[in-house]
Amino acid sequence: MSTSNASTPTPSRYREIEVSGSPRELGRQLGEAAREETRGFCEVALARVNKTVRISRERAIAIARESQVYAKEYRPDLVDELQGVAEGAGVSLDDLMLLQVRNQLTPDADSACTSLSVASGSGCVVAQTWDNDPALDAFTIVLTRRPAGKPATLTCTQAGLISYMGFGEGGVGACVNTLPAPSRAVGVPHYFTLRELLESASLEQAVEAVRRAQRAIPANIMLATPTGPADLEVTVDGVRVLTADPAHADWLAHSNHCVHPELEQINETFPELIQSHARKRRADGLMAAAGADAVERIKAVLRDHDDYPRSICRHANDDADFGFWETVFALIIEPSERRMHVTRGTPCNHEFETYWLK
């Protein structure tokens, strides 16, 4: 596990791990390979949640166990995989399920983030800033999974999660934003639906992966699909799809408020998260003014400092609730090229490193 001090600078790349096999075996390989990161994440996860909301470990474990029932109905193979991770890393399944449900424990947010999807000549590109607690950098890895009988995926994730941002062999890539909207404590964890979504091969399959789950939390999922940019505003009772209008724009941008006309009234009850409206206006303006290359257009947005330090490229500030959040990493995903580019740190002063699904 990487640490940072005066004599040991943080590496510019996240550690890369590749695992394969049956669900249980794949999980064991991952638990053994990322033992330090997984154990470390399990040790601090509830404490990080309690920086913004108070919840006891007993209540958190109860939610995790109830949600495990829903998760097993949705994808029993993924629960088996987590059991393998638990065995390999030497942690309990309860601890790992707590990682999967930690964004169900707070009424506010798991992370902020600004996301984009852009049509390009070689295929669709999806990207985001991941704005969160910088302490989570130490548990972050780039992971290739090759499950038996399922498509391979490449994700940038904290060790111990069943999935996160990334793409799969079918050509679908996903980035995620918190979407303030009604939630419930128990249901299929968000990361389980992301895993099935990344294993899909079309927008229709991606939507169904989310729609068929008994969801606990709302979320925004920005997609690159074989047919172009798309965005899913996901609530506990529906999935609304936004697509780019080729006559007006070749991109979509999203931050942390509802955009779909059927959901706009939710914004009156759930206020924007850390300048969400301003960030979306800024992203749209930059995308409209930028040049032709999709990746370079995106980089300009992700590095933007308008309204610094509460900018798209976010830095620590005096916000009472979320001032400790920073852009921990930024990523740009090109599913058709089977690669993603990730900064380890704020994109304004860290280079994008490239990772491949080989």
Q: Mean pLDDT score, rounded? A: 92
Strands ordered across the widest β-sheet: 1-4-5-6-7-8-9-10
Low-confidence stretches: 1-6
CATH architecture of the domain at 109-356: 4-Layer Sandwich
Provide the succession of SSEs: EHHHHHEEEEEEHHEEEEHHHEEE
CATH-assigned fold name of the domain at 109-356: Penicillin V Acylase, Chain A
Q: Approximately what portion of the residues adopt beta-strand conformation?
A: 15-25%
Cα radius of gyration in angstroms: 19 Å
Looking at this structure, what is the CATH superfamily of the domain at 109-356? Answer: Penicillin V Acylase, Chain A
CATH class of the domain at 109-356: Alpha Beta
* Cα-to-Cα separation, first versus last residue: 24 Å
Briefly note the structural class of the backbone. alpha+beta
Description:
The chain is α+β, with helices and mostly antiparallel strands and 358 residues long. It has a domain at 109-356: Penicillin V Acylase, Chain A, CATH 3.60.60. 31% of the residues lie in helices and 24% in strands. It has ten helices and 14 strands. The protein has helices spanning 23-33, 35-49, 57-74, 76-89, 93-101, 190-198, 203-211, 266-269, 276-289, 294-302, and strands at 15-21, 115-118, 125-132, 140-147, 153-158, 165-168, 173-177, 219-225, 228-235, 238-243, 251-254, 326-334, 339-344, 353-356. Strands 1-4-5-6-7-8-9-10 form an eight-stranded mixed beta sheet. Strands 11-2-3-12-13-14 form a six-stranded antiparallel beta sheet, with helices on one face. α4 (76-89) packs across α5 (93-101) and α9 runs antiparallel to α10 (294-302). The radius of gyration is 19 Å and the shape is globular. The two termini are 24 Å apart. Mean pLDDT is 92; it is low at 1-6.
